[in-house]
Amino acid sequence: MIKLIIIICVGLSSACALTKLTRGGYEEAQHEVLIKENSIELRRYSELQMVVTDMSNNQDNGFMRLFRYIDSGNKKKQKIAMTTPVFTSRRDGKSTMAFVLPANMKSDDVPKPDQDTVKRITRPAGMFAVYRYSGRHRTSPPQIKSKLKKWIGENNLLEKGTPTEAFYDPPWMPGIFRRNELLIPVTQSKK
Q: Would you tell me how many other CB atoms lie within 10 Å of the CB of residue 129?
């Protein structure tokens, strides 16, 4: 029994260390947590400089296009640090993937992409209701979206745009340790 407990403790310690070695070394998109209730947060995000690409049927195509951009695949041949999270969203049957650029990169500093399939965008500052969950999901489970929408209504907020998913970990991270989020842009209700 003691051996089993030791094995479990070592396994959990290793998993925590692995988490720190993967996501812990990257800059996270700047935000302020306004409210935290269990798995749900209300956040105010700063303006974010991003690069975005349409995804075909294979998410890796979108990821690799964006990765090539930050790995010198831009007009300045500049390497750009990886950040977290990777955002994905769906609108009108089309899916996109976006990388957040480091906070010290202002709009004028963002190099033009080499490929016309990668676009530079600025996401304006705003408030988002966020539900954090784990697992190997490519999209958030429907019950998470339902819980988040219910919380939005109960907290005198209004949905203001398209939901976005955020993924923080590399593919080899075990599902139980993965950090995923569903974000819905919101505004205060005028009640």
A: 23
> Does the 48-123 domain belong in CATH 3.20.80.10?
yes
Is-contact 87 97, C-beta < 8 A? yes
Asked whether the CA dihedral 99, 132, 178, 6 is positive or negative, the reply is positive
CB count within 10 Å of CB 168 equals 19
Helices marked H in the chain: 2-22, 59-70, 142-154
Any idea what DSSP says for residue 60?
A: H
Which of 123, 113, 119 lies closest to 53 in space, CA to CA? 119
Q: Contact, 21 vs 108, CB < 8 A?
A: no
Residue 59 has pLDDT above 90, yes or no: no
- The rounded distance, in Å, linking the Cα atoms of 20 and 62 is 25
The domain limits of the chain are 2-45+125-188, 48-123
Q: Among 9-18, 46-55, 104-113, 172-181, name the one with the lowest average pLDDT.
A: 9-18
Total residue count of the chain as it appears in this document: 191
Average pLDDT, the chain: 88
Whole-prediction pTM:
0.83
The C-alpha atoms of residue 39 and residue 133 are separated, in whole angstroms, by 7
CA distances (Å), origin 38, targets 32, 84, 85, 148: 16, 22, 20, 12
